[in-house]
Amino acid sequence: MIFKFIKEKDLQFDSYIEEYTDSIKKCEENFQIKINEKCSEMAVPPGAFGHMETLYKKIYSITKGKVKVDKPGILVYVSDNGICEAGVSNNPTSTTYQVGRNMLEGKAAINLLSEKIENQLEIVDVGCLTDLEESVTTKVSYGTNNFLEMPAMTREQAGHALVIGIQKTEEKISEGWNLIGTGEMGVGNTTTSAAVISVLLQEQVERVVGFGAGLDNEGFNRKIMVIKEGLNKNSPFKDGLDVAAKVGGYDILAIAGTFIACAKHQVPCVIDGVISIAGLLVAQTIVPDICDYVLPSHNSMEPGFQLVAKRLGLEPFFQFNMRLGEGSGCPFLFQLVGTSCFLIENMSQFEEVGLNRLDYVDIRNNN
Known about the structure:
By secondary structure, the chain is an alpha/beta fold. The protein contains 14 helices and 5 strands.
């Protein structure tokens, strides 16, 4: 891995990250063997449950056979981005605070989706320019720097944001959350995500950048130009944490921390959109086997998301043409997870219903 984590000796959070992640390994193969055997005995044609079987098998492997996903929740990290000074978004930076407040007051889309699916929801202010409220504020600083002028943050601030994600996730796991989704809110964060993805995938900026929350063609071209200039000014990059520190955002890093903490505790973690998958990419530079513990939800409209998903071998379960963020894809997957687990755990076996498994042909390898 080109951008593998390299600890800086004198930095507190670097040492914490190295020690915390040292014990995270690949999911054990024997649990995959066990669940394959169990599913082969279900009284249906082989592979008849399609993606529901795929999803259940992944969760079984993550949880080492102790499947329990009855308390899902989403962590939404709110942060402002200094790169907005370069005109990469049509929305004023005050939008970050306003939508964050709307979430706290139950007025945002993610609140409605969470209410319908009955999942938990927690908002975390990691870098909003204006404090949301004291109870949800765990701030690194008031927004990041404009990465056209200087690195978005220091490495120590980047480590701090990532550790906030770890610790907030640990807190939720201790409260019983057993299926965790990743969400965010921050004007300009599709720009920071595209910059991070471009470097870590070593892809041309033009292939990664999308229209975000909404840009005209002039704004889109400006966004590409800004990212190119920013990458040029901030290169070279030492490792994934350095990339995120120089051109990323606190939300991306906190999400990376959530992915890492979930892997540490064998809790399935759900990817939302492009900011979420940028966080996953940063996490992978620290924990190479992190993808063993994640579940993609929907296929974001942002091209950067699609490039990362393909590179990491992740196949989203839904195609909604969504580009909202907030963690909005996660409740849909929570619902599918619940249905899949109930179905497969309660499905009759061949010997129980008078059917013979040998009468069925497995056609999956033909497709």
